[in-house]
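The data layer described in this paper is built around a simple, fixed record for each protein. We quote a single record here, exactly as it is kept in our systems:
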Amino acid sequence: MGSNRPPSEDAVNEAVTRPRPISLTKAELENHDVVEAKEPIEVTAWVRFPETPIRVRGTAVAWTDSAVQVEWVSFSGAKHTAWVWASAVKRRG
């Protein structure tokens, strides 16, 4: 018998995305100085995939004045990284 529970947000996100997020390009990063985090900072971030944007829970590992490099592990265990606009990122906790 099947379950009446709705799928988790993580399971839905995994089902509608491809393995590769869409990261900002070098031109979009505009050669700003990149600051690497001494320790990763826990964040939530909106990340674009070809099919749809999703909100992920991950860590900020580097940033410029306008963008953040976010790393996260998907529901399936795959590791991802992408540069996103700073306004798409919020600290957790």
The beta strands are 35-48, 53-63, 67-73, 79-85, 89-91.
